[in-house]
Protein: Chymotrypsin/elastase isoinhibitor 1
Amino acid sequence: MKRIIKAFFLLAIVTIIIAQINTELCGENQVWSNCTTGCPARCIPDDRVCPAVCGPPGCVCAGGSKLDENGNCVYC
Structure:
């Protein structure tokens, strides 16, 4: 039983460390998300049809910023 508790505790610590590292890797106006979208908001509107499913974890635009034509999160 002690091994299970130690393993769970170690897993929790590793998860927290990985989440912190991923947050630091995001660029300006970006935050880490465990559920990304295949159709992020863009400054130039388009008529894409996007499925409502979670994509792989990664950085997303934060605070109302959107992707510009260069892939940077900016306030349009």
Observations:
- The two ends are 55 Å apart (CA to CA).
